[in-house]
Amino acid sequence: MRDHFEIRDHDAAGRIGRLEVPRAGVTVETPALLPVVNPNVLTIEPERLESEFGAEMLITNSYIIRSTDRIRDRAVDEGLHEFLGFDGAIMTDSGSFQLAEYGDIDVTTAEIIEFQRQIGSDVATPVDVPTPPDADRERAERELATTKRALADAEEAETGEMLVNAPVQGSTYADLREEAGRHAAGTDLDVFPVGAMVPLLNSYRYADTVEAVRAAKRGLGPGAPVHLFGAGHPMMLALAVAAGCDLFDSAAYALMARDGRYLTVSGTEHLADLDYFPCSCPVCADHAPADLRGFDDAETERLLAEHNLHVTFEELRRVKEAIRSGTLLELVDRRARGHPAMLDGYRALLDHADELERTDPGSKDAFFYTSHEAARRPEVDRHRDRLARLAAPEKLLLTESKAPSDHEYDAVWRVKPPFGPYPPALSETYPLTAEVPERTDDAAQVAAAESVVALAAANPKTAVTLGHDAWCERALDRLPDRVETENLRTLS
Ligand SMILES: [Zn+2]
Question: Which residues bind Zn(2+) (predicted)?
């Protein structure tokens, strides 16, 4: 744990935390969304970002400020907060993005950190090298070495109370990301952006995004505040938070508005195609799509940007509430239905159920089984691990039905897909209080069968009989021969 970042609540790998930003004199609640403010084009006034949208922190680009004569002197004289008219915390980017886009920039880490300190940035960024996805290995390693030197230069710089980002690079190589995360966590820098994500996000590669985040997190450890650089579409916030990200920045709200695009939690629509707004934010409550199309371009763009930001902050509040109520994975599951690529992202996240399990609370209010993906949730794994430690009697009946009125078993345990068997004493405990559909699916049956396997393996001397409700072949095939099975449907 770094002492300026405190974690309050957990769900999966998602958390509600508090990031202290001493130079701004504020504490920012995470997950937080930082609207990107282009110092040349204020689509929405920063003061309004705070008062109307609730932004506690924003991000702007110190490289653009430094290389634009018209604004540089003002930013230096007045300081960023006065210049932008924003009281909250301000993070500044360094020009790394420009480096990635144009191949060269004319500033060193030492110079840009000093400039960021001079203009009053609260969280500064060194000049790291954002290696794009799918770069060849040799390039990814070489550029990562340059990024590490940039972090060392940033550590040496005079920064006072200003926090400093330690970007984690490594392209699409999980081992490099992990190693970069471990290295960054070993510096005395403060916030950890997972970098070069924009190309992945722009091409909807959410599974690769999740893999990069998880790899970085394995290196960084659980106590580090993690920023998913360049991510701000409301559709993917729940997924990215569940994977362990704490900070997001949205340029999307303004960039998309410029192209007439309207963001929703399940994807992006075009204003030109809409007859109705599926939203009740101030913009959508006061206007129909046809009204917006009738305004001049600048007004349409501004109103679209406002809607885009409203819907993004609304989703962020929904994500936080889901963490508090222990329903974050249910929310991720719902969002995964918005686009097949989101479903890939959710499935990639579940590939790391063992990692999520470490921070997933042992008890929550409810578990809703609403998709076959839920059979791979960390709670199912955890119950299975617990079964492997339970002692079973000599003759044990496991059944999806009630105990028979007359029997010769030593004990009768209920079976509930996807969890599998459990002794009566656990019946009122999480997750066995789960709401599951009466018409169960193959994935739940297979998961339950694996739990029977775990219980039987832990109790080699127990004679196990399983009464199942017409389980699929795939589930029954998992069971060892010594587990006797009875199909309850044909029995009755
Ligand atoms: Zn709206």
Answer: 279, 281, 284
